[in-house]
Write a structure and sequence with these properties.
Elements lengths: L1 H8 L20 E2 L5 E2 L2 H4 L3 H7 L4 E5 L4 E3 L7 E5 L3 E7 L5 E7 L19 E6 L1 E7 H9 L2 H21 L7 H16 L3 E3 L3 H7 L3 H13 L3 E4 L2 E4 L2 H7 L2 H8 L8
Antiparallel strand pairs: 1-2, 3-9, 4-8, 5-9, 6-7, 6-8, 10-12, 11-12
Helix pairs in contact: 5-10, 6-8, 6-9, 7-8
Length: about 260
């Protein structure tokens, strides 16, 4: 009877769908003003008209590890579009402690406060893994943004997807290193496109809000399980599927949104 009632009312229940995948040109299909290949997914996804507005103002930038791009409270001088490498958004406390609240790679932009008309940063942004990218002066970027609806839409989409990922990772970050290390390593690899991640125990300890001994213990356990291999200054992911299996359930939700960010 219950089934018949549903049939009569013609109620249709649709399955939840994955976020639509960011459509973009192939990496290297575009170049900056200096003729260097562009790999940033936001820039590759823009229509030619809007990208050509940005192109003359994009300055190539080498971004070594530990380079600070922005400081909380400081005026934002540049927005950055990374081609490779990875930056961390870090919240600082009054007692000097820090904890990572987000990571950005080739899928997004550093300086998202500019999209809301703000001129000062909330978090410290530091290069966690060295890379390259392009920067554009903040006032030029904000002027162009007014006449670039696709750019506004893409950045709004990135901001939403990034916020959802941060919200999922928050319960693990700052907890036990064994809980927070697996999803952190997986998110790094999602953006770095390599089994080999340049990282020491000091940096993830600072980013995850845990002590270095806790990170060393977690790394040792993951290595003994055959999931990673620790070398001087690098971490190699040996078995991604198994690492996903031991990661907290938050990474499963994070991975769900990777397509929406243009990541694998």
């Amino acid at each position: 009877m219950y089934t018949d009632a549903l049939t009569e009312e013609k109620i249709i229940v649709k399955r939840a769908t994955r976020p639509s995948k960011l459509l973009s040109l192939r990496p290297g299909s575009r170049s900056d003003a200096a003729g260097k290949a562009v790999n940033n997914l936001i820039l590759l996804s823009l229509p030619d008209k809007e990208y050509n507005l940005l192109r003359p103002h994009l300055e190539p930038s080498d971004l070594p590890q530990h380079t600070i791009l922005q400081e909380p409270g400081d005026k934002i001088d540049f927005a950055y579009f990374l081609n490779d490498g990875m930056a961390s958004l870090v919240a600082l406390s009054h007692d000097g402690r820090s904890i990572e609240v987000g990571i950005i790679g080739k899928e997004g932009m550093v300086g998202m406060s500019l999209t809301a008309g703000l001129h000062r940063e909330i978090f410290r942004t530091i290069m966690q893994m060295s890379g390259t990218g392009m920067r554009i002066r903040s006032e030029v970027f904000q002027d162009i943004l007014l006449s670039a609806p696709s750019l506004r839409s893409k950045l709004g989409h990135f901001g939403l997807m990034h916020g959802m990922q941060v919200a999922q990772l928050a319960p693990a970050t700052g907890s036990m290193a064994l809980t927070s290390a697996p999803p952190w390593l997986l998110m790094c690899q999602d953006r770095f496109d390599s089994q080999l991640l340049p990282s020491t125990h000091d940096f993830p300890a600072q980013m995850l809000g845990t002590g270095r001994p806790s990170v060393s213990l977690a790394a040792g356990m993951l290595e003994n399980a055959g999931l990673i291999e620790n070398s001087r200054g690098t971490v190699k992911i040996l078995n991604r599927k198994s690492l996903e299996a031991v990661a907290c359930e938050c990474y499963g939700v994070i991975q769900h949104f990777n397509g929406g960010l243009g990541l694998k």
